[in-house]
Write a structure and sequence with these properties.
two-stranded antiparallel sheet; 405 residues; mainly alpha; 13 helices; 2 domains; 33% helix; globular; Cytochrome Bc1 Complex, Chain D, domain 2; binds heme C; disordered N terminus
Amino acid sequence: MLFFYGCGEENAPEMAAVPEQADDIFTDREWSVIRRLSPLPEIPPNPTNRVADNPEAARLGQMFFFDTRFSKDGTVACATCHSPFHGFADVEATSLGAGRGTRNAPTLLNAAYNQWQFWDGRTDTLWSQALAALEGEVEQAGTRLQYAHLIRQHYAADYETVFGELPDLADTARFPTDGKPGDLAFDRMSEVDQHAVNTVFANIGKAIEAYERLLISRNAPFDRFVAGDTAAISSEAKRGLKTFIGKGVCILCHDTPTFTDDEFHNLGVPQGTLPEDTGRYAGISLLLSDPFNGGGVYSDDTAVATRVLNFLEPIPRHQGEFKTPTLRNVALTAPYFHTGEFATLESVIEFNNVGGTGGNFVGQRERTLEPLKLSEQEKADLVEFLETLTGESPPAHLLTKPNLP
Ligand code: HEC
Ligand code: HEC
């Protein structure tokens, strides 16, 4: 419809125009591959979270995201490691929260597209991922009982608007002020009361997910290029794109509009001084035993999630596999790989180019990964290309700490 707006051809908006191919270096076959990478579609619905797209829930989730009271000692929030001013990732190789972690913090921009969360995919929704961070020993290290009381004291009205009535937590003999499964205080509670606390905990995660679903970054120079603006990226970047889909074989795994196949691969990234890490292998068992997974009682729709979970098995092939990360906004989120040991995009590309560097990692490096024999020019062009994947920032009001009650 937009296409017919105005009278002359020169008035037709660029987005609606057929891509201009005059000055470009791509064959029709290459274009058919490139069009698989752009534009970024709408985020998929998440039926396991009934408030996933509820604006009130998102407003609440933004408060939780920045509120350091959601931690054992009151000093750590999600934003501590996922800085809005560093592409919602961490400048540090491995993050410092309640403790020092052993993996690099990924970006949250466009995380709503991920089928799996964490490098090992040990959660299958954003809401259950948030719960793992809230109680994780090296992240926020608090407990669900602590958080439920925090909701009662500071967020009761807003919570009830979105989720309905809070359980009556005032009786601390029934609902101790601190504890999670494995702690006597929690384990001694009746099953009904445990379920009530778990429900509040799950809802905290669901509000955070509603906020994270707004952290979408689209319309990168690369997208404008694919939409027909031939000047949106440099000729170096165009050559880099050609290498990306051709000789570099990056497209094997980074092959969708989010630049990830949502799969797990063993690239043989060395652990260095970090502890041994089996990645997806352990991740599958953790996911299947997680009471907050998409197939569990706290999920608002178990049908699809259960079908997917039924396919998963912790077989040895998954040893040392890690999730293919998105490459959108990758220029903003150094350092790289699950270890955070690679400081620059150049170093990541060199690692791929030589076909892995050996060193200590679990399992077998994927056999298809041969040395690429890229020239210096081709490597530099690839970096130029990756830099065209930086999209527009989400709206400013989502980047700052709101007033907390
Ligand atoms: C102490 C630092 C730290 C804190 C605090 C923290 N995270 Fe993270 N986050 C990480 C690290 C490190 C990873 C990767 C860990 C892994 O894969 O095992 C991660 C992974 C994630 C992922 C998965 C992204 C992906 O692509 O796989 C999401 C989503 C996320 N965090 C959201 C949150 C939310 C929401 C909170 C607050 C409830 C939070 N994080 C708190 C460090 C942190
Ligand atoms: C076999 C699948 C596969 C291929 C081929 C592949 N990648 Fe990746 N890529 C991954 C996986 C998996 C990771 C994460 C590995 C890890 O941390 O252990 C990754 C990580 C990255 C990262 C780091 C991103 C971050 O946030 O840490 C960049 C950049 C990257 N790849 C670019 C490329 C480029 C450029 C090529 C082509 C030269 C390429 N990849 C080829 C699967 C692949």
